[in-house]
Amino acid sequence: MLDGEQAIIKQAVGGKSSAFGTLFEHYQPMIYRFVLVKVARREDAEDITHQVFLAAWQNIKGYKYQGHPFSSWLYQIARNQVVDHYRAKKNETSLEKMDPEYFVLPASATFDLSLKLDVEKVRKAIGELKSDYQDIIVFRFIEELSLKEIAQMLHKSEGAVKLMQHRAIKELQRIMGESEE
Amino acid sequence: MNIQEILKQFKNIEPDASYSATSKRAILAVEPGATRKPWTVRRTILTIVETGVAVALTVFFIFIVLGGLPGSELAPMKYSAIDPSSLHAEAEAIDMQIELAQLNYSEPAAESTAPITSVSVSSSTAGATTPATASLFASSTAINGVPGAGASSSATSSATTTVTLDQALQALGQ
């Protein structure tokens, strides 16, 4: 969370573009990673992330603080955009049929080769998880948010989030185990 | 391979800096709330007219569906209570019940029926006549000037009135 986030959000709601620019800089990498894990293709992730912030800016006047973090609103827009993306792509080539080289990680991520392969393997495994588990993996293990923050974002109890996290990681391990066999 | 350690590595993934800058510029170049159309008198009037027409059409169709105008053939649903043919049939059934009641009433004194203005006296049923009936018919005979009818005589009367179906319906309505 940004320092003085509520004041910045208030200014952005009032139409101040610099305030929204600050929110953009803070939250854009998170949304980008969230989307990238779900869609795999860097170009798609960039397009969708752009659409998320464009939609947020266009609807900022309708934003009302309801006790949930601002990121919760952005993640919800991102989820909807991802769903729309898959709906639009439904009749196009399936991901499995595409050249694996297409799933390149962004140039700004500096990994050595073996780690890059591991990361790609895990990303593919996450892609096989159901949407809720994908979300919890991203929030808990990638963004390292607290259980309380995740519970607020997903409108669930902390206990439910903990249980989901346990199941998600177990499922991920199972998929990873299967892929290694 | 520790999955959680690998997942932490995902945090190093950042969008390309030039993409981020371009995206930010493009987004902030758009007016906030650009999807909302500005308020104008013309748009307000159009909205009111559209809403009014929609409501009027809805009311009209509900009116037609639930009964419509009298005699209108547009109404797809007709209540049996106001359907003329069913009313007709119902009225005929009621008429039959009246006839049967009259027959039951007439049965004991069966032999003769006469208009109410005339009284027929039956001697065969004389023994069964009550004194009250006898006095009634005694006065009736006096009014009609029929000679020879005694106070001990018994009398039976029956009236037959022919009414049309419409008259029956009107009477039922009243």
Fold and architecture overview:
The complex is a heterodimer of chains A (181) and B (174). With 181 residues, chain A is an all-alpha fold. Helices cover 70% and strands 0% of the residues of chain A. Chain A contains eight helices and no strands. In chain A, α2 (17-39) runs antiparallel to α3, α3 crosses α4 and α6 packs across α8. Chain A is globular and about 55 Å long. The N and C termini of chain A lie far apart (41 Å). Residues 97-104 of chain A have low confidence and may be disordered. Chain B is mainly α. In chain B, strands 1-2 form a two-stranded antiparallel ribbon. The relative contact order of chain B is 0.07. Chains A and B meet through α2, α3, α5, α6 and α8 of A and α1 and α2 of B.
How much of the polypeptide of chain B forms β-strand, as a percent range?
Answer: under 5%
Output the number of helix runs of chain A: 8
Largest sheet of chain B: 2 strands, antiparallel
Question: How many runs of DSSP E, i.e. beta strands of chain B?
Answer: 2
Compressed to H and E, one letter per element, the order of chain B equals HHHHEHEH
Count of extended strands of chain A:
0
Number of helices of chain B: 6
Largest sheet of chain A: none
Question: How much β-strand is present in the residues of chain A?
Answer: under 5%
Mean pLDDT of chain B: 67
Q: Which term fits the overall shape of chain B?
A: elongated
Could you tell me how far the N terminus lies from the C terminus of chain B, measured between alpha carbons in angstroms?
96 Å
